[in-house]
Specification:
Blueprint (H helix, E strand, L loop, with lengths): L5 H4 L1 H13 L7 H13 L3 H15 L3 H13 L3 H11 L6 H15 L2 H14 L4 H14 L2 H14 L5 H12 L3 H12 L5 H17 L3 H7 L7 H13 L3 H13 L5 H13 L3 H14 L4 H13 L3 H30 L4 H13 L3 H14 L4 H9 L22
Helix pairs in contact: 2-4, 3-4, 3-5, 4-5, 5-6, 5-7, 6-7, 7-8, 7-9, 8-9, 9-10, 10-11, 11-12, 11-13, 12-13, 13-14, 13-15, 14-15, 15-16, 15-17, 17-18, 18-19, 19-20, 20-21, 21-22, 22-23
Length: about 425
Amino acid sequence: MKHTERQFHNKSLLCGICLWLLCGCGAPPELPVLVEDGWAAYQAQDTATLQSVMTAAIERDKRSVEVRFLRGLYLIRSGSPQASLVPLRDAARAESLRPRAAIAAAQAYYDLGQFQAVQQVLNDVLQQQPENIDAHRLLAALYYDLGVNPRAIHHLETVARLDLQDPRPHRLIGLMRKDFQDYPAAVEAYQAALARHPKPALAAEIRLELAESLISQREYAAALTTLAADDQSPDALTVRLQCLDSLGRRDEAASIVTAAIALTEPPAILCLALGDFYESGGKQSEAIAAYEQAAKIDPLDFIPRYKLSSAYARAGRDADARRELEAMQENRARYDKLHELQNQAMEQTEDADLRYRIGEAAAALGRQELAQAWYRAALGLDPTHAAAQARLSQSNGSALPENEKLPTPQPAALSP
């Protein structure tokens, strides 16, 4: 998981560990203190500090259950999740360590792609501790990976309620709503995220995604004022150009056009915005050139083909218009299939083959990273799914080698 605010509250404790290691004086801190320090370092993904804490615990009592617990955490963060499960099972025998050992074990299963084991462990945790925020965070990530958006949103809303400072749950809800074109809900989620005062870099990303959602609702003035003033990314240029053009502020848009033209590798969506700007200004040949560039960048997207077909028809290039219209229809059919399958995944939560087919649909659209994510989801539900394994291997994805798979996960042994 990513950094949490809690890591900063443990800063003084971690500094104490470092001072003890440096000066080599006196006895190391007590084991309960070391457990807290190690857990904070684990959550912060600070492997170096976690190793130092583990060393201090070994100095205190190398045979202790606390050392086993810390070793399990360290193995996860150092990239050995399978090896971590043995010490974590030992640690789970101690009542005081059991909930955290279960959360860590769930992370190990997650890293190993054992999604059903993750669900079982975390559901057991939530039966005992319904508001365990770490369990809700990991379940939200799991269901997001599986494409089960309603469940992911449920857990994200719980995280947002339990951690009033974290803007990320609402941001991720916004992304899911936006992806499925529920723009009013996306806008609401993004605004809730911004109300939690995210750090500048994250705030700029959220503002951009919020502006894109507002454009989809034709709220151009609001979208324009939403962007971070210093965001000069290609996506931000696209938003500004779309807004200024739609608001009829063409003189102001001219500087955006100049900046867009200067880019060596503009995204397809910016080329589309340039084409729209030229077309609304009556510059048909420039518009066609921009649409052609967008289609070249993303030949499997149906929108550039549609705009290109319409522009060719207006220019009297009927044969070209028909060709692009046919390509548009083929691409649109692929998109519709992907969208339909993703909707099915929200209901068919345990269907590995469905997720494999979603991966195939994404690959047919040239979305290789998305395809790999769905192949991994298929393997997470069915580690024996040979077709998904083969696809990941072909695309250099991170399919789990046979010798690293857990043939018989035992999550119950790690439940509180």
